[in-house]
Amino acid sequence: MLETEGKCVLIVEDNPLNMKLFGAMVAAQGFGVLQATNGPRGLSMAHQHRPDLIIMDVNLPGMSGLEVTQALKADEETRDIPIIVTTAYGLRGDDPAIRASGCDGFMAKPIAISEFLDVVECLMMRSLHRRLTAL
Length: 135
Ligand code: MN
Known about the structure:
Layout: E1 8-12, H1 16-28, E2 32-36, H2 39-49, E3 53-57, H3 65-73, E4 83-87, H4 96-101, E5 105-108, H5 113-133
Parallel strand pairs: 1-2, 1-3, 3-4, 4-5
Bound molecules: manganese (II) ion.
The site of manganese (II) ion (MN) has 5 residues, from loops.
């Protein structure tokens, strides 16, 4: 059983329905939920709150999710936060732009709930493992 207490997930998503759906799924798993609806806000919230996991949309106002991901992965303060990129725009996980962003996982929309839960749990475990081994 995954220990969820005190763990939080940052969702960066500008579509209100997706935000609601992802937020509900993350909360149902027992994690805290942080929300940003544009790229710059997602970047600043990641720095401010150091979430255990980020779910990142690609098409966002201000700054794309791939740009935000790249910026977080280039910064040693935030590079260990796992990031799942998600988009409906026909991109695949092996797309060069997705890979170049440095993200840790990819999910195509519409999201399958079971896949979503598996990916969140898997990356959250990895995040906890990194924290433990960094002690
Ligand atoms: Mn979007």
